[in-house]
Design goal:
Layout: H1 3-9, H2 15-21, H3 24-28, H4 31-49, E1 59-64, E2 68-71, E3 87-90, E4 95-97, H5 106-115, E5 121-125, H6 128-136, H7 146-151, E6 156-158, H8 166-170, E7 181-184, E8 188-193, H9 196-218, H10 228-241, H11 264-282
Helix pairs in contact: 6-9
The structure holds zinc ion (ZN).
Length: 283
């Protein structure tokens, strides 16, 4: 439908309703869209500076309202993005605003959004240590690094398909409810979260875990695993924070909060999470 016709129907009302009823062009030029574009650009630079993307590889998207997605364009380095480069698409992949063609991996992002409404932002990239695991078809073991346990838990490994195809996009569907981080065999990684910034954090945490695990294995000493009862504490914390974890299906919800105080390590981790959230809010 032409934008002008839609705008005739849309009465400007406050908040979400106004955004839902606005024309694509009105959404694309909104203050919210500009703020999200700026966040995508910041995260794109982080990905490039951390060497998580190569050439024009990697892509970033974020939902705006229930009908639209802002996404990075194809054939641009994630280190060189500008506001005008970010495209607006609907959930079927139709580009509604923007000067460039959107990423060929938009299909992957859209499948995640359609399958899991909790996913509001998606980051896909090719960080070397995570991709090394993806080549082997395996994820690092659980129970070694607390940060990984809290924010990710078990990472899934999706089977290989040709990038850019619908078949590739659908490889993640069996995992996208219980896993916020999925290794893509012979390709890279995709993470979803509530914001673009938080989805990029998951990439950082996954990459750091893969790298640290490989270094630890070279030290020639036995690896110490976090005790099972402490993993249960982490799972309880994750439930309270609303983070997904594939282990929930094997770990019944406790009938009451654990008695006694949370261990010092958990207090420290909660403090770190809160501090990072606060820092993020100041960006
Ligand atoms: Zn890729």
């Amino acid at each position: 439908m032409p934008a002008a016709e839609e705008e005739k129907e849309a009465e400007p009302v406050a908040g979400e309703s106004a955004r839902e009823e606005s024309s694509p062009l009105a959404v694309a030029s909104s203050t919210e869209a500009q703020t999200l574009r700026a966040e995508i650009i910041r995260v794109g630079r982080k990905l490039w500076e951390r060497q998580y993307v190569d050439g024009n590889g990697g892509n970033i998207s974020v939902r705006i309202g229930s009908r639209y997605v802002l996404c990075t364009p194809t054939l641009l380095s994630k280190g060189d993005l500008e506001l005008a480069d970010i495209c607006l698409s609907d959930l079927e992949g139709k580009i509604l605003a923007g000067e460039r063609l959107c990423t060929s991996e938009l299909l992957l992002h859209l499948e995640i959004y359609k399958a899991n409404p909790r996913a509001r932002a998606v980051v896909h990239c090719h960080p070397p240590y995570s991709t090394a695991f993806a080549i082997t078809g395996s994820a690092p073991p659980n129970g070694l690094i607390s940060e990984y346990e809290i924010f990710i838990g078990p990472a899934a490994v999706a089977p290989y398909e040709t990038p850019g195809t619908q078949a590739f996009a659908e490889t993640v569907l069996p995992y996208v409810q219980e896993h916020n981080t999925i290794l893509l065999k012979n390709h890279g990684i995709v993470c979803w979260s509530d914001t673009v910034t938080h989805a990029e954090w998951l990439v950082e945490i996954m990459e750091s875990c893969c790298k640290t695990y490989l270094i630890a294995k070279q030290l020639g000493q036995p690896l110490n695993f976090i005790p099972d009862n402490k993993i249960e504490e982490i799972l309880a914390l994750k439930r309270r924070m609303g983070l997904p974890d594939a282990r929930f299906s094997h770990s019944p919800v406790p009938s009451s909060q654990p008695q006694g105080e949370i261990a010092g390590e958990m207090e420290r981790l909660i403090g770190r999470v809160a501090a990072r959230m606060a820092l993020d809010d100041q960006d």
